[in-house]
Automatic annotation (TrEMBL):
A Pfam cross-reference name: adh_short_C2
Keywords: NADP, Oxidoreductase
GO terms of molecular function: carbonyl reductase (NADPH) activity; L-xylulose reductase (NADPH) activity
Subunit structure as annotated in this protein's UniProt entry: Homotetramer.
UniProt protein name: Carbonyl reductase [NADPH] 2
Coiled coil region boundaries: none
Family annotation (PROSITE patterns): ADH_SHORT
Provenance organism: Folsomia candida
Length: 241
């Protein structure tokens, strides 16, 4: 059974994204161009989320009006042994995976206030099942996702007066290119992560991006009006075993 959610007349900002009016913000120019060619109605923004001021200015400069729905989807991994973690590693991953969520959340709320929107909006942060599980080599990634899950609850509390609901999805391993595989150690980490998930997933297959998107659509829709400050597992049963 297919489910249809109504986002007509609403504007949606998706970071890392490549009848709603959708705004996709990404650092990857080629991916944005491909998205624009297949979905001409999408507004694309080329910006580096690690740059607080420039990414903020890029969104606020749009003549499109208030942003009703925000999906904080952008994320990176820093695969490195704990003993070899550097300040640059920490700053890089927390800049994208954590600080950018705060920045874009503030921007979204500001556009609603400036636009006189009194009906509120939604924010969905993409966390991970690794917010409370550890895979060797992924200490930084796991830490950022733990921070995202707790940040989601804090945002829900503080943005409630503006009627902005904030939730998170915590997906299991998906077939994406977030994990660089350019050396033997990173390949070992990838294999360890796959084994960890596949041994526990009741469905015994990788999660698809579309399945994660379905959960995000639900949380962004009026069907989830009483879901706020929650983190939803999309894990194929990993946490049941």
């Amino acid at each position: 059974m297919s489910v249809t959610y109504n986002f007509s007349g609403k504007r949606v900002l998706v970071t890392g994204g490549a009848k709603a009016s959708v705004i996709a913000l990404d650092l990857d120019k080629d991916a944005l161009a491909d998205l624009k060619s297949t979905h001409p109605s999408v507004t694309t923004i080329h910006a580096d989320l690690s740059d607080w001021e420039k990414s903020r200015e890029a969104v606020l400069a749009l003549p499109t009006g208030p942003i009703h729905h925000l999906v904080n989807n952008a994320g990176i991994s820093e695969v490195v042994e704990f003993s070899k973690i550097t300040p640059k590693n920490v700053d890089t991953i927390f800049g994208i995976n954590y600080k950018a969520l705060i920045n874009m959340g503030q921007v979204m709320a500001k556009t609603l206030e400036q636009g006189g929107v009194t009906t509120g909006g939604t924010i969905v942060n993409v966390s991970s099942i690794l917010d409370s599980r550890v895979v060797p080599g992924a200490a930084l990634y796991c830490s950022t996702k733990a921070a995202v899950t707790m940040l989601t609850k804090a945002m829900a509390v503080e943005l409630a007066p503006l009627k902005i609901r904030v939730n998170a999805v915590r997906p299991t391993l998906m077939a994406t290119d977030i994990l660089p595989l350019d050396n033997e150690y990173r390949l070992q980490v990838r294999d360890g992560l796959v084994n960890f998930c596949m041994e526990r997933q009741l469905s015994k297959r990788l999660l698809t991006v579309e399945e994660t998107a379905d959960a995000i659509l639900f949380l962004s829709s009026d069907a989830a009006e009483m879901v706020n400050g929650s983190d939803i597992l999309v894990d194929g049963g990993v946490y049941t075993v």
